[in-house]
DNA sequence: CCTTCATTTCGTTAACTGACGAAATGTAAT
DNA sequence: ATTACATTTCGTCAGTTAACGAAATGAAGG
């Protein structure tokens, strides 16, 4: 079995990363915005995002000193596209996910970063 | 976030468990048949199956001294059904998965168990 | 160039996971 | 009941993972 064929599935098997994917359904976010919502350390969030990126589930774009992450819905990896689609339909009733999404809509990077 | 909401995703994030789910698409199998195909110890296979069962992805039925496992396609858990559906469409090109399925079709428990 | 600040990388630690063999359990047939 | 044999549980071990703070990197503006 090919080495990293399972990586997208591994990546999605963690509650914090599920929360990240769900909040990215609302809009793209930078590291410190995700940190604010998840209430984890900056480095931890950065690692989660790096792992999701290496699984091809998200991509990043630079925006000045910020790095924006968004869902990689146009991935060439069929498993990735299917998983993002599955995620979109899942966890919609989860209270934490709902809160996260609400926060994602309102969060403002200039206010919360660098505190 | 509810404690075990992510369990099905966790369960599917392991190459050996992916292989198990894929071979169960062919037909139900007992522990020693899976052991034969995966070439792992009996206890390890048993644990993988227990984990998949606790994630609601498979169910077991007793058949004499054997325990048959099959995909839980009628699960009440939407995430589980979606995942099984996703799995069905994935890894079809994987050579190992193809071999596993072929073996699953031919394997005979009375011949290979208790060796 | 120097400072600021978001992000990443590094080093460490605690917890989890996947693997095994041995022992325990359970079932069917003698 | 005793045996045979499939499965599960137990105890253990090595490898992985998720978390943190501290240090390094990189980009924007003074």
Instruction: Predict the CATH topology of chain A.
Output: Arc Repressor Mutant, subunit A
Low-pLDDT segments, ≥5 res of chain A = none
Top-tier CATH class of chain A: Mainly Alpha
Structural class of chain A: alpha+beta
Share of β-strand residues of chain A: 5-15%
- How much helical structure, as a percent, in the residues of chain A? 55-70%
Spatial order of the strands forming the largest sheet of chain A: 1-3-2
CATH superfamily of chain A: Winged helix-like DNA-binding domain superfamily/Winged helix DNA-binding domain
Mean pLDDT of chain A: 96
- Quaternary structure of the protein: homodimer
Largest interface: A-B, 25 and 25 residues
Structure described in brief:
The structure is a homodimer of 115-residue chains. With 115 residues, chain A is of the alpha+beta class. The first copy, chain A, has helices at residues 7-11, 15-24, 31-38, 42-54, 78-89, 95-106, 109-112; strands at 29-30, 58-63, 66-71.
Please, could you describe this protein's structure?
Two copies of one chain form a homodimer. Chain A has 115 residues and is α+β, with helices and mostly antiparallel strands. Chain A has a single domain, classed as Arc Repressor Mutant, subunit A. Helices cover 56% and strands 12% of the residues of chain A. Chain A is built from seven helices and three strands; from the N terminus they run H-H-E-H-H-E-E-H-H-H. Chain A has helices spanning 7-11, 15-24, 31-38, 42-54, 78-89, 95-106, 109-112; strands at residues 29-30, 58-63, 66-71. The longest helix of chain A is centred in the middle third of the chain and has 13 residues, at 42-54. The relative contact order of chain A is 0.21. Chain A binds a DNA duplex (30 and 30 nucleotides) through residues 14, 16, 30-32, 40-48, 50, 62, 64-67, 109, 113-114.
């Amino acid at each position: 079995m090919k080495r990293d064929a399972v990586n997208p599935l591994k990546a999605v098997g963690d509650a914090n990363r599920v929360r990240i994917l769900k909040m990215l359904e609302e809009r793209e976010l930078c590291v410190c915005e995700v940190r604010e919502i998840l209430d984890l350390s900056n480095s931890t969030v950065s690692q989660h995002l790096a792992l999701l990126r290496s699984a091809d589930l998200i991509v990043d774009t630079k925006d000045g000193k910020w790095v924006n992450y968004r869902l990689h819905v146009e991935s060439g990896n069929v498993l990735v596209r299917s998983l993002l689609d599955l995620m979109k339909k899942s966890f919609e009733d989860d209270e934490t996910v709902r809160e996260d999404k609400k926060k994602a809509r309102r969060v403002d990077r200039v206010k919360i970063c660098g505190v």
